[in-house]
Amino acid sequence: MNLEEKLRQLRNAAQKTTRDLELERQLDYLRRLEPSPRRLPAERVPHGIEEYVEGLVERNERGEYFVARQGLPFGRPYGKLRVSDLSAADLSPLDLLFESTALPDPSRLVYLDTETTGLAGGTGTCAFLIGLGAIEGSQFAVRQFFVRDYPEEKAVLAALADVLTGYEGIVTFNGKTFDLPLLETRYALARMKSPFARLLHLDLLHPARQVWKLRLESCQLTNLEKEVLKIRRQGDVNGSEIPQIYFDYLRTGNARGLQPVFYHNALDIITLAGLTVEMARLIGAGCAEGAGGAVEFDSNLDLFGLSRLYQRHGALDRSVEACRRALRAGLPQSVEPRALWQLASQHKRRREYEAAAAIWVQLTLRDDDFTIAALEELAIHYEHRRRDAPAALSYVEAALNIPVGRPGGGVGGGAGALSPRHRGRFLHRLSRLRRKQEKLKV
Question: Which residues contact 43 (CB under 8 A, 6 or more apart)?
């Protein structure tokens, strides 16, 4: 069954309960562990993948390897997107994530995901399946290079390097920490030149966490796929089982269990491309009201997360506007103080002290993690900028009336808890302000 048929099943399948899906997954895993009825485990057939996955055995100067290739036509829907969006989308807003360069045209961009023999990395971990996705003509093509046995790894690495010469940028999900260092290690061990140094690399995991972490419990790729792209996988294999499936294949020669691994890898690649398009849309829309009103967001939390992304990459004006919009639209009570604190900090950085002070006053009226920090900022503001010692003194005394609590106090220190460290600072400021008042009386 090819990827096209799998996606058709995914779209048409009726919703199942969580318990049914878990039982089905366990039964499927047990079936994969069964020896083939036509061969005994001792009769190892290392090239059995051709019977279960559509692909070709190819050869280069390093030897033979297996490659599967499938294409999704642009008319194919994929969750809230269509495959054509991967080609037509404006990815230029993603340039914000780079300091001094721009992301290549979508046609010069490749999406990479690997399936490996372990998650720990190191020299003992091998990427046995390397998937690439890219725009080719009027379709999104997925190539998957498979190591049928360890001696074929060099041939796969050579084939991968050859294909990557046609691209200028690469997109991964946690590739900065895992996929690319792992592959670079494999190239080094094979005494081959890594093809990644010249490619502009976008690791989508980090901006995804900035934007969606506030709303979602998990920013794993499959959860983002479900919550952001509105896709619910069925018949997929659990990623933690994949290394053992490959070891079972190497041991028995039975490649039947590898078919869902190819499917899993292909979906990861398409989802990665879809999330890249969605991230570009959000970054571009974050400070734009749009012709018909505010640009649609799945959640106001995403808009606030976007303001944090802008701030992280130095787009302070856009960060302020996005944060203001999120606050106007309404945020949960647990998040709103954090947004107010961020907005006040941005005003302070831009030397808009009165606007910052107005927000700090709002925060002093709450009983949360930011109350003590806001009182300290107001004391500093009135002592040093407004030269109003009595006002500064009133905020210091208000802070000292808060009971001493666990260490940390202030931002992140716990509601209503004044740390000994903060108390010492406020006492020092209190002494100084009283001395100033005494001099004024004289």
Answer: 253
Query: Which residue's entry shows tokens 């997929």?
Result: 236
CA distance 398 to 377: 13
Residue with tokens 């485990």: 41
Percent of the chain with pLDDT over 90: 71
Q: Give tens-digit pLDDT for 250-267.
A: 999 899 999 999 999 999
**Token representation of residue 252:** 């028995």
86-95, 309-318, 367-376: lowest mean pLDDT where?
367-376
Three-state SS sequence of the chain: CCHHHHHHHHHHCCCCCHHHHHHHHHHHHHHHHCCCCCCCCCCCCCCHHHHCCCCEEEEECCEEEEEEEEEEECCCEECCEECCHHHHCCCHHHHHHCCCCCCCCHHHEEEEEEEECCCCCCCCCCEEEEEEEEEECCEEEEEEEECCCHHHHHHHHHHHHHHHCCCCEEEECCHHHHHHHHHHHHHHHCCCCCCCCCCEEEECHHHHHHHHCCCCCCCCHHHHHHHCCCCCCCCCCCHHHHHHHHHHHHHHCCCHHHHHHHHHHHHHHHHHHHHHHHHHHHHHHCCCCCCCCCCCCCCHHHHHHHHHHHHHCCCHHHHHHHHHHHHHHCCCCCCHHHHHHHHHHHHHHCCCHHHHHHHHHHHHCCCCCCHHHHHHHHHHHHHHHCCCHHHHHHHHHHHHCCCECCCCCCCCCCCCCECHHHHHHHHHHHHHHHHHHHHHHC
Burial class (CB in 10 A: 0-12, 13-18, 19+), 60: middle
Burial of 411: CB neighbours in 10 Å, binned 0-12, 13-18, 19+:
middle
Residues 403/413, Cβ–Cβ less than 8 Å: no
Residue 2's pLDDT is: 66
Q: Residue 81 pairs with which residues in a beta bridge?
A: 78
Distance of alpha carbon 226 from alpha carbon 347, whole angstroms: 36
Identify whether the C-beta of residue 292 lies closer than 8 Å to the C-beta of residue 137: no
CB neighbour burial string for 233-245, b if at least 16 within 10 angstroms, e if fewer: bebbbebebbbeb
